[in-house]
Amino acid sequence: MSKKRFAAVLLLFALLLPCFAFVSCGDADPDEGLYTRVTVDLNPSVEFMIDDSGTVISATALNDDGSILIAGEVFVGKTPEEAVEAVIELSAETGYLIRGNVTADDNTVTVTVSGDTSYAKKLTGKVEDKIKDVMKELDIKGKIEKGEALKTDALREIASSISLYTDAELSAMNDEELYKVIAAGRIETALLLTDELREFYYKAKEAEISFAGNKSTADIINALGDGYAVLYTTYKASLDVYHEIITALDQLRYEKLISPDSDYQKSLAELRAAKKELLRQKTYTATLEINGDEYLAATATLRLREETYQNALQAYENIGQIANAAFQVLIDSMSAAEETLRSLEEKFPEEIKSKLTEKAEEIESSLNSSKDAFFETFEEAHSADIKKVTDTLIEEKNALIAAVNSSVNK
Predict the structure, then answer these.
(1) Burial of 153 by CB count in 10 Å (0-12 exposed, 13-18 middle, 19+ buried)?
(2) 14-61, pLDDT tens digit by residue?
(3) Residue 287 structural domain
(4) Are both 248 and 397 inside the same structural domain?
(5) Residues in contact with 367: Cβ distance below 8 Å, sequence separation at least 6, in sequence order
(6) What is the mean pLDDT of the chain?
(7) Are residues 275 and 402 in the same domain?
(8) What's the CA gap between 166 and 3, in Å, rounded?
(9) How many whole angstroms separate alpha carbon 292 and alpha carbon 20?
(10) 0.90 exceeded by pTM
């Protein structure tokens, strides 16, 4: 039942309403009226989705450093150039970009503007020029590289991971339609600043909506009366098993990846602490005269900080792999439960199949209502976790800024 065609509302939003909410309803210049995706990567990696009025409609961190960088910031409503300018300035404040005795290679910024259109090429030039201007103003030696834009298949993969569209529906979409689906998903999860929270949300949503579809089927069978009591009992029993597995998997994901008490989150805290010390030492070393005694001692300390960071990174990745392995048994059980339900559905008598067809629109409407209400339900259940993550990221950013300032003022 997963990823059935129950995304009508989102489909209408993404494909048929060019004037919906955040999109300009004026007569756009054909060269400017395109959705696109812009990413800025200098280890913090940030994605901006741009609508057909040339405005940022979502900002998403693509790694943990990116989450720290954008926490507490407002990018929506800015132009792509303004958003990129803010990223460069924040990166300098937090030490991801280094002033002083460094080479341009030490401050490499990779910019990617998706699409092979004249608009994308023009926007690439504007964004690159803005970065050059800001880095010059901040007296930062650096270089800008042009990243390879995602191909259609890669866009479909992102859209599939953050939406309820079927593979067939996504295959029928062109690039701009895929950008709109991605933008809609990013807007939906704007309050979820980390990959872990977003994945937790998407997995829970897909499973919950899938279960809701199966439950609607069970309700229809039950309404047909005693003649189908045995079938209803069998189907309902399988559905109960399915729901139990979904609940257990959600709980395990929370305990392993989201809970502050999890080994994963503790390891992440250690990784961030190691990164802070590494950036602090990089900033300090860059303030020193090259080849002086103090510089030599600082570079030796820097190598130790880099080694500590790499060890922390390896430990963090290992714990993540262990956590993911722990999910596999339940994931396999969930797939088996879904297959059991599908097998039962394939053997439904014609009367039940006809009734399901008759009720298809009603079922879809119910599913869309569940889908639209899911974030509110999720936010209510995990408001404390969302706030904790946001507050922690802002604290981490402020700590990085303080570390940079202390290194510069030594």
Answers:
(1) exposed
(2) 333 343 333 333 334 445 568 899 999 998 999 999 998 999 999 999
(3) 195-408
(4) yes
(5) 4, 6, 209, 212, 213, 216
(6) 90
(7) yes
(8) 5
(9) 61
(10) no
